[in-house]
Amino acid sequence: MDHAADAHRTDLMTITRHVLNEQSRNPESRGDFTILLSHIVLGCKFVASAVNKAGLAQLIGLAGETNGEEQKKLDVLSNEVFVKALVGSGRTCVLVSEEDEEATFVDPKLRGKYCVCFDPLDGSSNIDCGVSIGTIFGIYMIKDKDNVTLSDVLQPGKDMLASGYCMYGSSCTLVLSTGSGVNGFTLDPSLGEFILTHPDIKIPKKGRIYSVNEGNAKNWDVPVAKFVEKCKYPKDGSPPKSLRYIGSMVADVHRTLLYGGVFLYPADQKSPNGKLRVLYEVFPMSFLMEQAGGQSFTGKERALDLVPTKIHERSPIFLGSYDDVEEIKALYAEQAKSSSA
Ligand code: AFP
User: Fold this and answer.
1) Which is the most buried residue in 10, 61, 229, 303, by most CB within 10 A?
2) pLDDT for 137-154, tens place per residue?
3) CA-to-CA distance for 13 and 204, rounded, in angstroms?
4) Is the entire prediction scored with pTM above 0.85?
5) Per DSSP, what are the bridge partners of residue 214?
6) Residue whose CA is closest, atom 18 of ligand 1?
7) What is the CATH number of the domain that holds 70?
8) Are 133 and 183 in contact (CB under 8 A)?
């Protein structure tokens, strides 16, 4: 038996312990956030296990009749898991899910002070080929528990209290920010616990990767086309950037956060607002990027300054290393200047 390794394992920083430590710095904290988060973690563990079993259990797509019961699609199942966990936490008030057309207002008897916007299984079109997929979430505080309206979730991203994602890949990694930096936790299957493995993640100031669906290039606007051209044919003597695009936002953003570079899903002539959703894709990822020292921009403004008017609103997004996003901002500023001249 390896006693040295065993001794090592007696002082693990689990995600709950980490959040408790963070919350204990706030004298007004009553443990509600920690309870909410532990229910999100429970949802992530459930989905991680379902994703792992997906091939075997034929959970991929509508697998038809199994034991007399129709198997649910993995994204529908994940949504049910998260809605139940979040309502069951007794700490939520309004939920917005990518899977549900309308927001869910929690029964007044079970209400707490948090709103959670989430995509239970983002990138689900990748499930069938085993590519990493993930859950994305953003958490807000409601203004008045007795008078909850949709406006409680239609807040600018900068008012978010916390955000994160859980990536179901070769390992299961949960990346979280509660507004004081970004930390990554990896699920230890033998313990069933998320352990702090990536403390205080900082994105490199400049990266060597760009990540975009180039198939949309014919519809791009001038700044995006110029930026991608610069990535391939830099004029300042720097090496060209590599292109990496998975088509699963959690996986693309995770790589961007760790290795640096820029992830873009711009507007184009066909989709003037881009593809990605403000409340449960753009805001949570932008919050993490800023907390890691990067930037996030919509083509017009800082992404977290956006004020959504609809729960499933979309926005163009450019996020990643500070200097790379700065270049994109300069190209948009140049265009705005030339069109006003
Ligand atoms: P799915 O959930 O339909 O797979 O969409 C994934 C996603 O919302 C996001 O995770 C990707 O970054 C983006 O769409 C990829 O979009 P394209 O396929 O248009 O590149």
Assistant:
1) 303
2) 999 999 887 789 999 999
3) 25
4) yes
5) none
6) 247
7) 3.30.540.10
8) no
